[in-house]
C-alpha cells in the first residue's frame, strides 16, 4: 500500500486566494517530510541514516480545488497521485465547517452515499485507489489560537465588548444544523478563559449577520462589537459580502481570516501525521 494525501479546497478566481492555499499546503508538506525523514533516521543505522537523507519520504501530497482553478481540480489531483503509484488516498477537505454541502457533494463523487436528500451534481471521479475521507476544519486547537490572537489585537476593553463570529452557513437544513453545531463548538472553546461582555455567531446563508450584530449592540454592557469572519482565506465574502451586509452599522472588523497565519501549516501537518498513522 502506498498512501497519498489530497487536500481539497473550494477554489477562487482570485489569484491571491489560491496562492495562499498553495503556500499553506507547501509549508505543511515540508514539515511533514521533515517529520517522516526524522522517523526514518531514528530507525536506521548511521550508514542508512546517510542514505536516507538523500531522498524525501514518498507520501505525495497534492492541493486541488472543487472549481475555478483549471489544471488543479480534484480529478487532476487524483490522477497525479495515482501516477505516482498511490493506492490509498487520504482526502483532507480544507473547509471550515462540518456543514458544507460541498463536502458531501465531493464525497458522493468519490462513491460515498449521500448523508441527506441533497444530491450533488459533480460527475463521479475516475479513481482506482482506496479513499479515506477525513474531517474538515472546525474547532481545531490551531484555529482557536489564531482567533484568540486576532481578538487580542482588536480588543481594548473586553468587559464592554461583544464578539460576533460570522460563517458561511447553508441553505439546506441538514447541513445548516451541522454548521450550527460546529460553530457552537468553536465559540464555546474560544470563550474559555475570556471575559467579553457577549459572544455569538451567525450565518451569511441564510442571512442573519446584521440582525445578530444589532441584537448584540442593543445589550447595555456592550459598547463595541468585534466581528471575526471564519473563513480560510480572504476573498469575496470577507472583502465585499460581509461589509455590504453590515453596512450602516458600527463595528470593529479587519477581514482577517485563518490564512496566512503560520498555525494553519501546523494544523495541516498534524492532520497529515494523524491520517497517515505515522
Automatic annotation (TrEMBL):
Q: Which InterPro entries match?
A: CbiX-like (IPR002762), Sirohydro_Cobaltochel/CbiX (IPR050963)
Q: Does the keyword RNA-binding apply?
A: no
UniProt KW keywords: Lyase, Metal-binding
Pfam families reported for this sequence? CbiX (PF01903)
Q: Name one GO molecular function term.
A: metal ion binding
| Name of the protein | Cobalamin biosynthesis protein CbiX
Amino acid at each position: 500500500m502506498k498512501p497519498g494525501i489530497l487536500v481539497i479546497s473550494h477554489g477562487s478566481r482570485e489569484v491571491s486566494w489560491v496562492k495562499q492555499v498553495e503556500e499553506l499546503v507547501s509549508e505543511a508538506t515540508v514539515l511533514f517530510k521533515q517529520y517522516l525523514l526524522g522517523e526514518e533516521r531514528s530507525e536506521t543505522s548511521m550508514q542508512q541514516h546517510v542514505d536516507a537523507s538523500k531522498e524525501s519520504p514518498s507520501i505525495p501530497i497534492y492541493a486541488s480545488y472543487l472549481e475555478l482553478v483549471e489544471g488543479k481540480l480534484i480529478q487532476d489531483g487524483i490522477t497525479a497521485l495515482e501516477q505516482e503509484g498511490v493506492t490509498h488516498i487520504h482526502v483532507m477537505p480544507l473547509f471550515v465547517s462540518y456543514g458544507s454541502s460541498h463536502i458531501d457533494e465531493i464525497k458522493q463523487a468519490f462513491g460515498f452515499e449521500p448523508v441527506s436528500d441533497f444530491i450533488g451534481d459533480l460527475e463521479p471521479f475516475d479513481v482506482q485507489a482506496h479513499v479515506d475521507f477525513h474531517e474538515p476544519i472546525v474547532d481545531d486547537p490551531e484555529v482557536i489560537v489564531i482567533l484568540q490572537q486576532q481578538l487580542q489585537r482588536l480588543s481594548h476593553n473586553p468587559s464592554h465588548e461583544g464578539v460576533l463570529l460570522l460563517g458561511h452557513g447553508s441553505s439546506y437544513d441538514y447541513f445548516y444544523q451541522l454548521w450550527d453545531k460546529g460553530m457552537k463548538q468553536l465559540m464555546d472553546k474560544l470563550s474559555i478563559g475570556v471575559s467579553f461582555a457577549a459572544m455569538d455567531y451567525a450565518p451569511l446563508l441564510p442571512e442573519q449577520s446584521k440582525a445578530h450584530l444589532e441584537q448584540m449592540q442593543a445589550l447595555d454592557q456592550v459598547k463595541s462589537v468585534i466581528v471575526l469572519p471564519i473563513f480560510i482565506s480572504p476573498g469575496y465574502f470577507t472583502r465585499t459580502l460581509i461589509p455590504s451586509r453590515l453596512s450602516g452599522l458600527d463595528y470593529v472588523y479587519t477581514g482577517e481570516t485563518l490564512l496566512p497565519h503560520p498555525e494553519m501549516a501546523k494544523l495541516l501537518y498534524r492532520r497529515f501525521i494523524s491520517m497517515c498513522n505515522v
